[in-house]
Amino acid sequence: MRAGPRPTGLRARVAAAFGLGALLVSAVLAGSTFLLARGYLLDQRESAATAAAFVDADFLRSRLATAGTGVDDVLAELSTEGGDVVVRRGDSWYSTSLEVGARDVPAGLRAIVESGSAGRERVDSPAGPRLVVGVPVAGAGLDVYEVAPLGELRSVLTTLSWVLGAAALAASAAGAGVGLWASRRVVQPLDQVAGAATRIAAGELTTRLPATDDPDLVAIVGSFNTMVDALAARIDRDARFVGDVSHELRSPLTSLTTAVEVMGARRGELDDRSRQALTLVEQQLARFRATLDDLLQLARLDNDPGARGDEPVAVGGLVREVLAASGRPAGLLETDPEEDTVVRGDKAWLERAVRNLLDNADRHAGGARAVRVARRGASVVLTVDDAGPGIPPEDRERVFERFARGPRAARGSLPGAGLGLAIVADVAARHGGGAWASASPAGGARLSLSLPAGPA
């Protein structure tokens, strides 16, 4: 299944909107400016050519009124700075230039002038665009045509179009830049909220948004800080409740334990059914004590989730100590004694996490098959492999939740209260690491604990 297109971010959309808006406005302004300038320059050129045509026509009429004066002689006296002059007299054509002649006078304009009216027309020629103005000279039998080149005007308009286009693109880029700047200013409060939420999720419940004078943000900041206050109060209340309940249960639990121990000392005086009942009570009492101890540990973690020790702890050595203290074989540990496995943290909590991983393997998989400690980049990773039934992929995240217990088919009778791995996950998070489950090469489950490596 192909992934869909990645959605565009808010900043990019705001910058694009500003850029497109600037492009639209600048394009309209550039187009309007070009059309107005083009119309104005063409009108000016046509007016100048028309005026020059009438002046030349009057000059020809007055000079040709003198007997013996030829058209060629008069044309030689004309100024051709504004354009060339073509004259028709009867069936003869005369011109001030060898390059311009009767062929350059359009037939439509010729018909208008021959009918006795003045006219003008723009034409294209191999030499470039031209404006031809025709003026009839009444009484002299002359038709005068002023041929004005428009190539220079076209060059000016082309240059103007390039300048206006470049200005439109520059305005669009400036609009996009302003949009990017504005989007950063708009998104900045959201970044602050996201950063504060991330720190709160990491356990820094004292994090609050700074006060602001912006009337549009006052309500958001106030609501967010109020929500965090309520959340912190709720977490603190729940943690105190668990701690208080656990402490209150210790006294009756101690009394009950003492009574059961007294009964256990006189086990030989009991009949078979009473001894079975006593054994069951001892097992459940041991489970109750373990659960109560786990609840107290979780309450301590919840009361101060952001605190952590800063002493150097060699994870490989710590695992050896736990294996020795619990009577497990030292050969379970597979690690290089020379490898740097030092982390910084609270040794007591880390020891508890290691013990819980080993106890979990004992409880659900008949014991650990291998324990490995290795340095992986900037982390030290502890893995515990077992040969039990394993953990289904859909339950590998859930087993680290509190009171989470896998399906009975996969975990047998499921002893324990489902708090051991929750403590492991909380200790890992407290030290900036993580915990996860995967499949073991031994055929069972592999539980991993990752901690940031630190200097010794």
Automatic annotation (TrEMBL):
One Pfam family here: HisKA
Chief subcellular location: membrane
Species this chain originates from: Geodermatophilus nigrescens
Superkingdom, taxonomy of origin: Bacteria
Catalytic activity field: ATP + protein L-histidine = ADP + protein N-phospho-L-histidine
Keyword annotations: Kinase, Membrane, Phosphoprotein, Transferase, Transmembrane, Transmembrane helix, Two-component regulatory system
Subcellular location: Cell membrane
InterPro entries membership: HAMP_dom, HATPase_C_sf, HATPase_dom, His_kinase_dom, HisK_dim/P_dom, HisK_dim/P_sf, Sig_transdc_His_kin-like_C, TCS_sensor_his_kinase
Domain HAMP intervals: 184-236
Protein name: histidine kinase
Membrane-spanning residues: 160-182
Start and end residues of each Histidine kinase domain: 244-455
